[in-house]
Structure formats: structure tokens, C-alpha cells
Amino acid sequence: MGLARPADQRSHRGCILASPLIGIVMGRFSKSFRERPIGVQMAIALFTIYGAAALFGAAGGVAEFIRSGMSHSAVGIISMGWAFAWGLTITGYVLFLWPLAYLNHSLIARAARASR
């Protein structure tokens, strides 16, 4: 985290701490992924990218809210979530992550089916 300002680094800590939980929540969508039509699979992959980004941003907002002694507005939590999701769209990064999310859901679904 050497490139971020110290204040940003503190909010990123909240994001990093929440990452495993966000991964578990998004992984729950993989349970019946392979049983769905391809269009639904693609929609699930896209939804989980934006959902994870929004939750990641909200976690940073919560960390900033707590760090500020709760003097910031709670609306900042929501706005950071939207900002992360918006950033994925504006930068075009979602086009890179979408196929990876699809592959990830496919592999998780395959592993879940093999373990039954």
C-alpha cells in the first residue's frame, strides 16, 4: 500500500479485513451456477463483480466512518460502495474481471459438485 495516502491506507484496511467475508458471500452464488442457462450464468458473474465491489467500497466506508470517530455521515458508507462499483465501469476493468468471475463461479460449482 505504498502508493496510497496514509488516510486511504487506513480505509483500505477495512476493505482488506472484509475481503474474505465478501468472497464467501459472493461464492454462495456459485452453488447452482452450472445448472443455469448461459445467459443467467453471465448475469450472475456480472452481478457478483458489482456486488463484491460495492461491498468492498462499503467496507472502506465503514472503516473511514469508525476512524473518523463517527463524525462523518453514514451516507459516506453507501457512496464509497457506489464509487467502487462506478470505478469498475468507468475504467473498463469490469471487462477484464467479468470472464474471470465466470471462470471462478464455474470452478467453484464444479468443485462443489465433485465433493458431493
Q: Would you write up a description of this structure?
A:
The longest helix has 30 residues, at 38-67. It contains 4 helices and no strands. Helix 1 packs antiparallel against helix 2. It has helices spanning 6-27, 38-67, 75-91, 93-114. It is elongated and about 50 Å long. It has a domain at 40-108. The mean pLDDT is 84. It is an all-alpha fold.
CA(first)-CA(last) distance: 40 Å
Largest sheet: none
Estimate what percentage of residues fall within beta strands.
Answer: under 5%
Q: Uncertain regions: pLDDT < 50 for 5+ in a row?
A: none
Helix content: over 70%
Question: What is the string of SSEs from the N terminus onward?
Answer: HHHH
Structural class of the secondary structure composition?
mainly alpha
Strands, total number: 0
Q: How many DSSP helices? A: 4
Q: On the 0-100 scale, what is the average pLDDT?
A: 84
Radius of gyration over C-alpha positions, nearest whole angstrom? 16 Å
Please tell me what the overall shape is: elongated
Quick structural summary:
The chain is mostly helical. 78% of the residues lie in helices and 0% in strands. The model has no long low-confidence stretch (mean pLDDT 84).
SSE blueprint:
Elements: H1 6-27, H2 38-67, H3 75-91, H4 93-114
Helix pairs in contact: 1-2, 2-3, 2-4
Keywords:
116 residues; mainly alpha; 4 helices; 0% strand; elongated
